[in-house]
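Human:
I keep going back and forth on a fold encoding question. Comparing notes only helps if you start from a blank page. Show me how you would write down a chain together with its backbone fold. Write it directly below this note and I will take it from there.

Assistant:
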Amino acid sequence: MSDFDKSKLNVNFMKGVNKISPIIPRKYTLTHSDETGDLFLDIGKNYNCKAITSFRDEVLCEWIKFNNMYFLQCYAYISGGEFNLKESAIRYSIFKKELPLALTAIIYGDKTFFKAHPYLSNSPIFINFHSIYPAFNKVEYLGKVKDYFI
């Protein structure tokens, strides 16, 4: 995993969302620059679709409430058919390697929110990998929010 560098994180709060509210809807769009290593986190009521490129290497997350329990649901796009099986395996491997960094960036970038809502630190995190290949089309548990605090 790459090391998280706070100085490389750029956070943008979109219309209708501030540092402490709302919980739902609250969605995260995390993108990056391969050239500079900068991370770009948009926090809004919707995903920042304008930030998503044709590379589809963003991580998307949103808060969900089910049976009076909050959880952070994340999404990573592996392949809809434009990548072959080998390329999809590489994409899946890269996402798996970089997800801890991505989650650390998201949670650090919204740290005031977590200070205002400390009970969310015990919320579970799940990642949905989307792929046409069954080996990579799955949901995985990634621990709890507090596992990514720095």
The longest strand covers residues 69-79.
